Amino acid sequence: MKVLVVAATKYGSTGEIGRAIGDVLEDRGLDATVLSPGEVGAIDRYEAVVLGSAVYAGHWLKPAKELVDRSGAALAERPVWLFSSGPVGDPPKPEEDPVDVADIVETTKARDHRVFAGRLVKKQLSFGEKAIVVALRVPEGDFRDWAEIKGWASGIADSIRSESRGSSTV
């Protein structure tokens, strides 16, 4: 089965999560293509989609939201899983879902939405972003839990493979 993995990333951390998810899907026997939202053309050639975005100020990045706007109907016709990346710290904060995720879940009819801790490298940030990080005392570091990410991706692979076997025997 062909699976599209899309990750909107600002500084690369969420893109690395997308690539890790794609690798797990490939290792589990699926044909995974990992792209950024701007590289995505027609969704029709994929049987399933995993879509994620970095989260800034509680919102998904614009390229991910634009992909949902232009391809929402096609996404809703196939299994979709969503992920957000961004909370940092131990425990990661903020704990709540991004503001716009409820609408994205509704549009895509997503089966699941998972929030993964992110990575913060202060030297990558703009002046305004650094000011916010300092004001909120946001810790620098890589808080991504690769075992959690890979476990979630394995569950997606199991679900896709199970449904694929079920539909081929009917």
Structure write-up:
The chain contains five helices and eight strands, in the order E-H-E-E-E-H-E-H-E-E-H-E-H. With 170 residues, it is an alpha/beta fold. It has one domain (2-165): Flavodoxin domain (Rossmann fold). Strands 1, 2, 3, 4, 5 and 6 form a six-stranded mixed beta sheet that branches. Strands 7-8 form a two-stranded antiparallel ribbon. Strand 5 (80-85), helix 3 (101-108) and strand 6 (112-116) form a beta-alpha-beta unit. Helix 1 crosses helix 5 (146-168). The protein is globular. The mean pLDDT is 92.
Write the layout of secondary structure elements.
Elements: E1 2-8, H1 13-27, E2 31-35, E3 48-56, E4 59-60, H2 62-76, E5 80-85, H3 101-108, E6 112-116, E7 119-120, H4 127-136, E8 141-142, H5 146-168
Parallel strand pairs: 1-2, 1-3, 3-5, 5-6
Antiparallel strand pairs: 3-4, 7-8
Task: Give structural attributes.
170 residues; 8 strands; Rossmann fold; two-stranded antiparallel ribbon; 42% helix; alpha/beta; 6-stranded mixed β-sheet; 22% strand
Give a short synopsis of this structure:
The longest helix is centred in the C-terminal third of the chain and has 23 residues, at 146-168. 42% of the residues lie in helices and 22% in strands.
CATH homologous superfamily, by name? Flavodoxin domain
Q: Give the H and E element order.
A: EHEEEHEHEEHEH
Q: How many domains make up the 3D coordinates? A: 1
Low-confidence stretches: none
